[in-house]
Design goal:
CATH architecture: 3-Layer(aba) Sandwich
Largest sheet: 7 strands, parallel
Number of helices: 9
Strand content: 15-25%
Helix content: 40-55%
CATH topology: Rossmann fold
Distance between the termini: 39 Å
Number of strands: 7
CATH class: Alpha Beta
Radius of gyration: 17 Å
Structural class: alpha/beta
Bound molecules: NADP nicotinamide-adenine-dinucleotide phosphate
Oligomer: single chain
Amino acid sequence: MLKPGGAVIFGGSRGIGRAIAFNLAEKGYTVAVVSRNGDQCLAAAAELPKAGTHIGLACDLSKPDEIQASCADIEKRLDQPIHVLVNSAGVVRDGVTPRIQLPDIHAQVNTNLIGPMITCKHFSTVMMKQRYGCIINIGSVIGSMGNSGQSVYSASKAGLVGFTKSVAKELVRYGIRANLIEPGFIHTDMTQGLSEQQKERIQAGIPLNRFGLSQEVADAALFLVESSYTTGQVFKVDGGLSLQF
Ligand SMILES: NC(=O)c1ccc[n+]([C@@H]2O[C@H](COP(=O)([O-])OP(=O)(O)OC[C@H]3O[C@@H](n4cnc5c(N)ncnc54)[C@H](OP(=O)(O)O)[C@@H]3O)[C@@H](O)[C@H]2O)c1
């Protein structure tokens, strides 16, 4: 097993990405915490185990033109082999298809799908030279199940399935693994806005009868980082929600 190197976590400032950052820092990875809010990333990096070694910086994944430069900057600042890339940044903008606004379509497709494509493009090149790397993209069960009022979100996450499987096939010969996690409903800022009534209705449809925790998704991510014989997989952490379909 290699000594842990760098880990880049887009969406590492809050929620699921932050829990993944914590798990990896605890295992000895040097983490780059990235989101739109640079101050929040710095604060999150400072709270990780072995604080002082990690970095925090701003990058807006909805702006394709800025991502390449940010990736190059992260690579330079981490200044060590980058072993892990996690794409956890994501946004949801609910709206039924006939009424959804164009900016909401662009925000979701750019952040959830095109952004991760560009970060994978950049860091897979880095990983190919090292002949080692682990990519984890965070999709959603909604990507495979669909959901009324979330057609664009669902499409952006479904796109990540084909993308991740293809990346896994392309890069396996370079020692790079790529997997996708599909969380169900998880207690984070993203689900904070649901009304109590909505939460009760959703929970009733979850076989484990509760929302999940960021830590439970982060533990799956750590498993994927450490399981050297797993690639191209879609790993559901959804309390059994997808069993209902
Ligand atoms: N929570 C759930 O129930 C659930 C279920 C299924 C899938 N997911 C997926 O899991 C991932 C993490 O979600 P979460 O629940 O942890 O959400 P969250 O608590 O809202 O965190 C989202 C993270 O993404 C970052 N982010 C958002 N837009 C960004 C942008 N344009 N550029 C860079 N960073 C951006 C946020 O930081 P800034 O705001 O500072 O940019 C934050 O760090 C997402 O991909 C989400 O779709 C979540």
